[in-house]
Fold this sequence. Notes:
Structural class: alpha/beta
Oligomer: single chain
Bound molecules: 1-deoxynojirimycin, calcium ion
Radius of gyration: 24 Å
Distance between the termini: 30 Å
Number of strands: 24
Shape: globular
Amino acid sequence: MPRSLTENPRWYQTAVFYEVFIRGFFDSNGDGIGDLRGLIDKLDYLEWLGVDCLWLLPFYSSPMRDGGYDIGNYEEVDAAYGAREDLIKLVDEAHARGIRIIADLVMNHTSDQHIWFQESRSSGDNPKADWYIWRDDDSGWPEARIIFTDVEQSNWAWDSERQQYYWHRFYSHQPDLNYDNPEVVEAMLSIVKLWLDTGLDGFRLDAVPYLYQRDGTSGENLPETHAFLRRLRSEIDARYPGRVLLAEANQWPTDLVDYFGSSDECHMCFHFPLMPRMFMAVRREQRLPITEILAQTPELPDGCQWGLFLRNHDELTLEMVSDEDRDFMYAEYGADPRMKRHLGISRRLAPLVENSRPLAELLHAMLFSLPGSPVLYYGDELMMGDNVYLGDRDAVRTPMQWTPDRNGGFSRADFAQLYLPPLMDPVYGYQAVNVEAEYRDQGSFLHWVQKMLSVRRRHEVFGLGSIEILAVDNPSVLAFIRSYYPESSLAVKDSENFAGNLEGDDASQISTSLDFREDSKEGEERCVLCIFNLSRFAQPASLDLARFKERQVTELLGRVPFPDIQEGDYRITLGPHGFYWFSIT
Length: 585
Ligand code: NOJ
Ligand code: CA
């Protein structure tokens, strides 16, 4: 049955996101570059996979010196990707399949090729002279850190045309816009509207912490930046209800939550500090890195949601860890110097876990059940590999592997014409790892992800529930309870009458299919116990579940009844990197 778009304006709280690098997804016209029509061709696949919202990396016209994050013209789709009409068609076709689409929006900076910058640099008194930040010397704002430390020496760059320095937080070919100029604010708000008018469902806001600078500060998370975000949000709420703003703010939890404001800034923020700690926890085989950061994570304001991720198009960033933990991560995951990029590790998920299927499953099971909306990165559902011999972050941006045919089925262009070579090594190459093969193989990781997402979709507690970390005697075991009691069910909760929940469910029936069992009712679990073994060896665990005495425990994927909770001390054994999702009813 085709899915349709939910009308719930808070759809993003229960959605699963999928990040698409258009350039690398599917090439419809054989020029070696993925494009919007190619993505339209693959929507059926994404619908089958069960994702709810695509996040498109920047598609605007660009010299492509930073994957399109160097915008040359905000008003045009890059010719290699198609045209505005193609985007509108993509949005319509996706919506028809129940899939929403958000686009990356780079507000902080443009390319130095942008016509605004060309004008701005031409003299000190042209109409756009103050659209960027110009100074006679490069001594200003020394407290602001350099983000791309491995390639940039300063946040100031000399422009020989204007004979002045301009400010940039990323590459020197990406000058920062001057948000103290009200014309820049207005120009950006009209660009937002221009694209929302195509039917897009919102934006991932690139590099939001850096919009303003003030003397004596780090130039991050300033009150002026938050005021601008409130303005942006109110304009969107007024004209475009149901759209979402997802902030890319690589910050510590206490600064991060400020991007939700009082539910009047961004609807979502990526949880940057949690991500590296999931990798740390499985390597140390200890839950502490995860539980520590969750303890430091403030409550979400109403209507907000975390964006959770394992990998994305950038390096696995290590900005939000201590120096000691960064050394540990480099030693464990990035030993080869070619893997280090900026302040992180440019590798895909599968090579990071040494192609271990149980470990990839464990990490995804955590991703799908921790509080937030999961954001998948294209190709990770196949356990695709990377190519550390490519420059910058291209290691993780190679073509999607569709088939074992030429160019991995990504493009009919000559190999030499491809924007990047597809993987061809014996382990991760397209002949071994591709959608066609994994789709045919019911036991593949692709099918496992698809099934997990279908289970997750049936239980809104994963998107909406609170979390309580449980004390477990074994430090290698992470356990938490997710609970969600919608307003309408509070009467049931008060009387503690959960008995009816599983009525009619014949859990003893043995399924011969490899599929997880279908639920008899939708969204019935209001209390789910999630338990993970972070160690590569089998582990016992004892949980204090006294307050759930006499409740029924049912494994969620197979609907298999486990022993009821008796006097509180509940004993479980988990296989290597094993996990359970239990409903407690
Ligand atoms: C964050 C993006 O994710 C990254 O790819 C880009 O290089 C920087 N912002 C600069 O725009
Ligand atoms: Ca193309």
